[in-house]
Amino acid sequence: NDYLARGADLTGNADGKSGIVSVWLRLDGGDDTAQYLIADANLRVYLVRESSNYFNLRGFTSAHTVTLGLGTSTGGYTASATWLHILSSWDLAVPGSGKLYINDVDKTNVTTYLDGSIDYTSTNWGIGARVDGVNKLRGCIAALYFAPNQYLDFSVPSNRRLFIGSDGKPANVGTTGEVPTGTAPLVFLSVVDGAAATTFATNKGTGGNFSITGSLDIG
Question: Of the four, 9, 32, 113, 151, which is 20 to 30 A from 93 by CA?
Answer without folding.
Answer: 9
